[in-house]
Design brief:
The chain is α/β, with parallel strands linked by helices and 241 residues long. It has two domains: 63 residues, no CATH class; 148 residues, Zincin-like, CATH 3.30.2010. It has six helices and eleven strands. The protein is globular, with a radius of gyration of 20 Å. It comes from Gulosibacter molinativorax.
Length: 241
C-alpha cells in the first residue's frame, strides 16, 4: 500500500514520488510530456531519493527527449471526416463551404467549420484555433473566480498560449498564469486541475510535500485528474512554444 504522494525538483526536473512497500526504487518517464514518477521504498528519505534520481538523470533526460521528439498524430488537413477533440470529446469535422464570416459550431457529434470555398488549410486552422481559444476564455473566468475564493488568493493576470511541454505555468513574482491552448481539447476536469495547480503555486512555490498536501486538501482527486490529462490524446497538429 502506498502513502501520500510528494514532489521533488532535481536539476530542473519535477519528480512525483510515491512511497510503497517495495524493496527497490523504480523510476518511470511517462507520455505525453515526459512526466517523471518515482516509486520508493518507505524506508527511503528525501536525500536517498534525490541521490537515486541524480544517478539516473542521464537516462531520464534521454527518455524525455524521445517522448518530446516522438511523432504526433498527422497534421490535420481541415477536411470533412477528420477527428478533433473538444473538452475531451472526439468530434468529426464537417466543412461547410459558403460565403460569409468563417466560424465554428458544434452540432451533435459534429464540429462544423463554416468557411469560404477558396480558404486555405492554414486559414481554416487559424479559425479553429481562435475558436478553441474562445472556449478557454469562456471557461476560465468562473473557475478562477471559484478558486480565488477557495484559496483566498487573487489572479491579477492570466494568458492563453501555445506551450510545448507544459499544461500551465505560473510566475510567482508577477502572479501571471499561463494556460496551454491545448487544454480546450481535454476534459473540463483537467482544466480545473491546472487552474488549482497553478494557483496553489501562489501559496507554495516548490513541488514538495506541502504542495501535495495543499492539493490533497483542496482537490482530493487531483492525481486522477492529472493522470487523465497526461493520458489524453496528443495534439493532432504540430505546435511549438
Amino acid at each position: 500500500m502506498s502513502t501520500a504522494s510528494a514532489y521533488l525538483r532535481v536539476s530542473g526536473i519535477d519528480i512525483d514520488v510515491v512511497h510503497k512497500d517495495i524493496k527497490h526504487l523504480h523510476v518511470g518517464v511517462y507520455p505525453p510530456l515526459g512526466r517523471v514518477r518515482v516509486a520508493a521504498p518507505k524506508r527511503f528519505d528525501e536525500e536517498q531519493i534525490r541521490l537515486a534520481i541524480v544517478q539516473r538523470l542521464s537516462w531520464i533526460r534521454k527518455q524525455q527527449k524521445q517522448l518530446q521528439n516522438a511523432p504526433r498524430q498527422t497534421e490535420r488537413e481541415m477536411v470533412t471526416g477528420e477527428s478533433h477533440y473538444v473538452w475531451g470529446n472526439r468530434l468529426r469535422l464537417k466543412v461547410v463551404e459558403r460565403p460569409g464570416r468563417a466560424h465554428v459550431e458544434i452540432d451533435g457529434d459534429r464540429l462544423v467549420l463554416y468557411t469560404a470555398a477558396d480558404s486555405s488549410v492554414e486559414s481554416r486552422r487559424s479559425v479553429l484555433e481562435r475558436w478553441y481559444r474562445e472556449q478557454l476564455k469562456q471557461a476560465l473566468p468562473p473557475l478562477i473566480n471559484k478558486w480565488e475564493r477557495e484559496l483566498q488568493v487573487t489572479v491579477p493576470k492570466w494568458t492563453i498560449r501555445r506551450m510545448k511541454t507544459k499544461w500551465g505555468s505560473c510566475n510567482r513574482e508577477s502572479r501571471h498564469i499561463w494556460f496551454n491552448l491545448e487544454l480546450a481539447k481535454k476534459h473540463p476536469n483537467c482544466l480545473e486541475y491546472i487552474v488549482v495547480h497553478e494557483m496553489t503555486h501562489y501559496i507554495e512555490q516548490k513541488h514538495g510535500e506541502r504542495f501535495a498536501r495543499l492539493m490533497d486538501q483542496r482537490l482530493p482527486d487531483w492525481e486522477l485528474r492529472r493522470n487523465e490529462l497526461n493520458g489524453a490524446p496528443l495534439a493532432e497538429e504540430e505546435w511549438s512554444a
